[in-house]
Amino acid sequence: MAKIVINRLKIVLAEKNMTNRVLAQKLGVAETTVSRWVTNDKQPSVETFYNIAVLLDINLRELFVSTKPKL
After folding, report:
1. pLDDT for residue 42
2. How high does pLDDT run on average in the chain?
3. What is the CATH number of the domain that holds 33?
4. Rounded to whole angstroms, how far apart are CA atoms 70 and 45?
5. How many domains does the chain have?
6. Is 52 exposed, middle or buried (0-12, 13-18, 19+ CB in 10 A)?
7. Model pTM?
8. Closest listed residue to residue 23, CA positions, set 1, 2, 7, 4
């Protein structure tokens, strides 16, 4: 079964030139936790997604893969 990609965290971190390690330090979580989020093995809580958006100074929606069909 194919892994479902839910978040765009890996892409957004690259766009912001931020590493998993730096994000982990800023959020006070383990680097392995961020790694699991980036690979979509696990998902952060809604509150954590919000905190990530604030830290990265982006709209919360930018962290998610769009499921809206393209016309």
Report:
1. 95
2. 93
3. 1.10.260.40
4. 27
5. 1
6. buried
7. 0.88
8. 7
Please, which residues have CB within 8 angstroms of residue 18's CB and are 6 or more apart in sequence? 56
Range of the domain at 55: 9-61
7 φ/ψ angles, rounded to the nearest 5 degrees: -115, 160
Category of 42 on φ-ψ map: left (φ > 0), alpha (ψ -120 to 50) or beta: beta
Asked whether residue 67 is domain-assigned, the answer is no
pLDDT at 69: 66
Q: What residues in the chain have per-residue pLDDT under 50?
A: none
Is 23 within the bounds of a domain? yes
pLDDT score, position 70: 66
Q: Is residue 16 part of a domain?
A: yes
Residue 60 DSSP code: G
**Residue 53 domain flag:** yes
Sign of the CA dihedral running 41, 25, 16, 64:
positive
